[in-house]
């Protein structure tokens, strides 16, 4: 069983839709990162959170430590949001990240 | 700050050759990470340093791989001898360190070993 499970693996949406990407993990963590990677591009850190909720523009990330679950939400999705989104918890007590396989999001105009 | 700087951006080499990838972290960041990304395995941590000291190298595939961080502003990842299965994108990232800080990634070095 993978230590980090993301769902869905692929997601296609129409511009303006509300998007949710889920991440479940089995390792004990100190923090969880959400990363964004555009096709052929580099990797950008969207959020790092260890509890509760964080919001940045149209993006919202939540985490439930007890349930070992995190979600990334995108409100009013836009074609430029098309990318792979990767969940990466850091194992408790270290900076070592364990990576999910990513969710490929395509937002059509 | 210019961000995390990696070089070369692209490298094509022949099997058996030595490959050296370079990384300059963001000034003031005390943790540096080397990751590898392939289609089959996704992102994997190879090694990370804190205050120039290797903390966890359990992801380094085998003895052909080595990494150094001689000072706070420079790190290298060396593959000798290279093999076709080493073909991947290698990312360097840095953070302000413990407790876990936000990660900043370089643009990656795409390695092709023929």
Could you characterize what this model shows?
The complex is a heterodimer of chains A (109) and B (114). By secondary structure, chain A is an all-beta fold. Chain A contains no helices and ten strands. In chain A, the strands form two sheets. In chain A, strands 1-3-8-7-6 form a five-stranded antiparallel β-sheet, with no helix packed on it. Chain A has a five-stranded mixed β-sheet with strand order 2-10-9-4-5, with no helix packed on it. In chain A, strand 7 (59-64) and strand 8 (69-74) form a beta hairpin. The model of chain A has no long low-confidence stretch (mean pLDDT 92). Chain B is mainly β. In chain B, 0% of the residues lie in helices and 54% in strands. Chain B is built from no helices and eleven strands. Chain B has strands spanning 5-7, 10-13, 19-24, 31-38, 42-50, 53-56, 65-71, 74-79, 88-95, 104-105, 109-113. In chain B, strands 2, 4, 5, 6, 9, 10 and 11 form a seven-stranded mixed β-sheet that branches. In chain B, strands 1-3-8-7 form a four-stranded antiparallel β-sheet, with no helix packed on it. The mean pLDDT of chain B is 93.
Brief account:
Chain A has 109 residues and is an all-beta fold. Helix content of chain A is 0%, strand content 59%.
């Amino acid at each position: 069983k993978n230590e980090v499970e993301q769902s869905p693996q692929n997601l296609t949406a129409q511009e303006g839709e509300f998007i949710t990407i889920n991440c479940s993990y089995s390792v004990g963590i100190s923090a969880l990162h959400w990363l964004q990677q555009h096709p052929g591009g580099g990797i950008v850190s969207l959020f790092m959170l260890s509890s509760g909720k964080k919001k940045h523009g149209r993006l919202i990330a939540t985490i439930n430590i007890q349930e070992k679950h995190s979600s990334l939400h995108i409100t009013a999705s836009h074609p430029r949001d098309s990318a792979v989104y990767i969940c990466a918890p850091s194992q408790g007590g270290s900076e070592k990240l364990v990576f999910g396989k990513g969710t490929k999001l395509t937002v059509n105009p | 700050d210019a961000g995390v700087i990696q070089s070369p951006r692209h490298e094509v080499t022949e099997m058996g050759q030595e490959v050296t990838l370079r990384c300059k972290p963001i000034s003031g960041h005390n943790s540096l990470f080397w990751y590898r990304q392939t289609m089959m395995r996704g992102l994997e941590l190879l090694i990370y340093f804190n205050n120039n000291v290797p903390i966890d190298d359990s992801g380094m595939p085998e003895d052909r791989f080595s990494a150094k961080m001689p000072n706070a502003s420079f790190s290298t990842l060396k593959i000798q001898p290279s093999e076709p299965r080493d073909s991947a994108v290698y990312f360097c990232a840095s953070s302000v360190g413990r407790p876990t800080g936000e990660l900043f990634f370089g643009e990656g070095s795409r390695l092709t070993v023929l």
